[in-house]
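Structure ticket #2291
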Amino acid sequence: MPKPTIVLVHGAWADASSWNAVATGLQGQDFTVLAPPNLLRGVATDAAYIASFLAQRTTGPVVLVGHSYGGFVITNAAVGNPAVKALVYVDAFIPDAGENLLQRTTGSCLGGDPTKNFNIVPFPGGVDLYVKTEADPPFPGLAECFASGLPAPETAVVAAVQRPIALNALAEPSGPPAWRTIPAWALIGTDDRVITPTEQTFMAERSHAHVATTDAGHLSLVSRPDAVTDLIVAAAGAS
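Resolution: structure written out below.
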């Protein structure tokens, strides 16, 4: 049985470079790794793009990994694809059918008044959201919220390379979840301030995921890449 290809899907306000350390660790264990762009335009559009990517760029078994909003995307993109043998959620949403992002953000540092948390930027046909770098109380700022636990130089890079998510994506409902038929794994950062550990635990237990924890904020793929890599390898071995 060939080793599965590992496909890493980033979340909102990030790009594929957020997976660099994890990709390096997986490649060091002879896995083929792909980290496609997540369009961040809405669940249906983003999932269709990743599903198309899987169809065109992979052969054989796949372990599909999502960080944060990427969890919404992989939950939908894997439906009906028999090549996907495992879903791995890293500090991620694990939605059920009909749920949207706003319904699973109780206690989030990005909750509340969006004008406090985001720079809201219109574009032709819609509106983009960027996380504010500086604090705008009660929003504590990007460093204390989205990038909590990272050193200042890494936080500055996170702020510089962030990609926006479209406002409409926040309320778009998820479809039937792939985790009903595909085994799931979940890594929960115990100091995650974007998706609280309570919310993550609820979603992970509901999906019957194999759960691991790590002492990290929302970006454990950056701050604790070894823990992320270890869980992905475990999922690959079980599949």
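Closing remark: The mean pLDDT is 97.
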